[in-house]
Design brief:
Blueprint (H helix, E strand, L loop, with lengths): L2 E7 L8 E7 L8 H14 L22 E2 L2 E2 L21 E5 L8 E3 L2 E2 L2 H8 L21 H11 L6 H5 L6 H12 L8 H14 L10 H5 L7 H16 L1
Parallel strand pairs: 1-5
Antiparallel strand pairs: 1-2, 3-4, 3-5, 6-7
Helix pairs in contact: 2-6, 3-5, 5-6, 5-8, 6-8
Length: about 250
C-alpha cells in the first residue's frame, strides 16, 4: 500500500528541526512499523538522501529503545504495544502517519527520532540495584518469597525504560519509571537492607535530572506499553516519607 510519512528531521539538539513529508509505496500490511521505516530509508539511500535516524534493538518489545510518537500517541494507536510491535495493518491505504521523537527537557534530541535517555541510566546508578558479593548466583529457593510479593515485584520489574511515561506526561515526570524501579527492589528481601537509602537517592536523582513533578493525572499509566500501574507512584511517595523519617 501507499502511505505518507510526515517525519520530524533534526540534525542535533542545537539545530532547528522540522517535519518532512515522504510519500512511500510498496508498504506491506505485514511489515512492522520499524520495517516500514527501514523500507523508507532504503528508498532514501537510492536517492542519495540522508536516512532517518531512529532507535531499535531487540524489535521484540523488550528493550524499550524504539519509542516514538505516532499520530500524537506514544508507541502508536494500540494499548500495551511498543513501536516495534506495531504493524502496518493498523493503518490504511493513503494514510498520513506523523512520526516525531519523545519530547522532554531531560530527553534532548540526538538526531531525528533519537533522544538521549541516559538520565534514566543515572537514576538507576543511584540505587537501582542491591549490594551483594560477586560470585556464583544463590540457589533460587534459598530465600523464600510469598507469591503475592513476588508477583507485585514482577509487575514493577516489567518496566522497560522506554520513556513513554515521561513523553506523555504534561509535566515530563519520571515518577512512574522511578517508582517502578524502586518498588521492584524494595519489596524483595534482598532489597530491604537498603530500601530507605535507595528511595532517597533515586528520588533525589530524578529531581536533579530536571524531570517535572507528578500531578497524578494518570496519562503515564495509559501509555505505558508494559502496563505499569500508577499505584507505584503512590507507593514510592509513602516509602519516601518513611525514608525521610528514618533518615
Amino acid at each position: 500500500m501507499k502511505v505518507t510519512f510526515k517525519i520530524w528531521r533534526q540534525e542535533n539538539s542545537e539545530s532547528k528541526g522540522a517535519f518532512k513529508t515522504y510519500e512511500t509505496e510498496g508498504i506491506s500490511e505485514e511489515m512492522s512499523f520499524l520495517e516500514a521505516l527501514d523500507h523508507l530509508n532504503e528508498t532514501l539511500v537510492l536517492k542519495n538522501e540522508k536516512v532517518i535516524a531512529f532507535e531499535h534493538d531487540c524489535r521484540e518489545g523488550i528493550c524499550g529503545q524504539c519509542g516514538v510518537f505516532i499520530n500524537g500517541r506514544a508507541h502508536g494507536p494500540h494499548d500495551n504495544t511498543t513501536t516495534c510491535q506495531l504493524h502496518m495493518r493498523s493503518f490504511k491505504e493513503g494514510d498520513t502517519i506523523v512520526v516525531e521523537p519523545f519530547r522532554a527537557g531531560a530527553f534532548p534530541i540526538i538526531k531525528d527520532l533519537v533522544v538521549d535517555r541516559s538520565a534514566f541510566d543515572r537514576i538507576i546508578e543511584h540505587g537501582g540495584y542491591i549490594t551483594a558479593k560477586t560470585g556464583t548466583a544463590a540457589e533460587a529457593n534459598s530465600i523464600l518469597i510469598p507469591k503475592i510479593v513476588a508477583d507485585s515485584a514482577m509487575d514493577s520489574a516489567m518496566c522497560i525504560g522506554c520513556g513513554a511515561c515521561v513523553a506523555t506526561c504534561k509535566n515530563a515526570s519520571a515518577a512512574l519509571f522511578t517508582s517502578a524501579k524502586i518498588n521492584h527492589l524494595n519489596q524483595l528481601p534482598q532489597g530491604k537492607p537498603e530500601e530507605h537509602q535507595r528511595t532517597l537517592d533515586m528520588v533525589y536523582q530524578m529531581d536533579f535530572e530536571n524531570f517535572g513533578s507528578c500531578t497524578f493525572i494518570g496519562a503515564c499509566e495509559v501509555e505505558c506499553p508494559a502496563g505499569i500501574s500508577i499505584s507505584n507512584i503512590a507507593e514510592m511517595n509513602a516509602r519516601y516519607f518513611k525514608a525521610k523519617l528514618f533518615s
